[in-house]
Amino acid sequence: MTPLTHSLAVLAAERKSADVTDWAARIGWVVGLLLFITLVYWLMREGWKWRGTLQGDLPPLPTAPSDPGPARLELSGRYHGSTTAGQWLDRIVAQGLGTRSRVELTLTDAGLDVVRPGATDFFVPAGALREARLDKGIAGKVLTEGGLLIVTWAHGDKLIDSGFRSDHAAEQAEWVKALNDMIDTTGTADTTEGTAR
Questions:
Q1: Which of 7, 15, 42, 96 supports an S-S bond with 120, CB 3.0-4.6 Å?
Q2: SS3 state at 87
Q3: 3-class SS of residue 39
Q4: E-assigned strands of the chain?
């Protein structure tokens, strides 16, 4: 055996292939990652429940009257949530207002009927409506300018902004006009009744 051959044989004998997978370390990392994700989810859930507790003074949501009258407008789309009026990041989660869902809106002379499959339905009486506008965002949802229909309404002693997005965005401007006309008419009627008394 020549010295060169002997050196190559020694090098070949010393080489070992590295372990392909360290299963214990891999399982440890996976378990650690799952525990971290579970902790983050639990903290988010507790935060949501805590916010609901802080907003516990919000009265129950009104329900639609048995005969609200004929529909002026109807809209199907998405309900994106409610916030304290004028504070688009102060989400309201009490009474189910924080739950996003599909929505069917119906505007009648009695008010705004909000039907949400899989979530709590509610009704905004005409006298509680304060303003309607197109805006670009509400807590958790930001769109292009004018992408959301925001309806401001009074509930108890709180003013609430609720955000909706129609499946047909072009009809949202018609909703703003109809709601604001209704608010102006209702406000004028209330003022006239107050003066007559």
A1: 96
A2: coil
A3: helix
A4: 71-84, 91-92, 101-108, 111-115, 122-125, 129-135, 137-138, 141-142, 148-155, 158-166
Q: What is the mean pLDDT of residues 109-121?
A: 90
Longest dimension (CA), the chain: 122
Half-sphere exposure of 46 (CA within 13 A, CB side): 6
Nearby residues of 188 by Cβ (< 8 Å), 6 or more positions away = none
Amino acid at 42: W
Exposed (0-12), middle (13-18) or buried (19+): which is 179, by Cβ within 10 Å? buried
Rounded to 5 degrees, φ, ψ at 90 are: -90, 80
Reported as a single tens digit per residue, the pLDDT across 42-64 is: 988 887 677 666 676 788 888 88
Evaluate whether 72 touches 129 at the Cβ level (below 8 Å): no
Evaluate if residue 189 carries a pLDDT over 80.
Answer: no
Please say if the pLDDT value at position 120 is more than 80: yes
Looking at residue 113, its amino acid is: D
The total number of residues shown for the chain amounts to 197
First to last CA, the chain: 122
Provide the sign of the torsion angle of the four alpha carbons 132, 130, 48, 99, taken in this order: negative
Return the H-helix or E-strand segment holding 178.
helix 172-196
What the block records as the tokens of 8 is 């190559």
Can you give the pLDDT at residue 191?
Answer: 44
The answer to whether 64 and 121 are in contact (CB under 8 A) is: yes
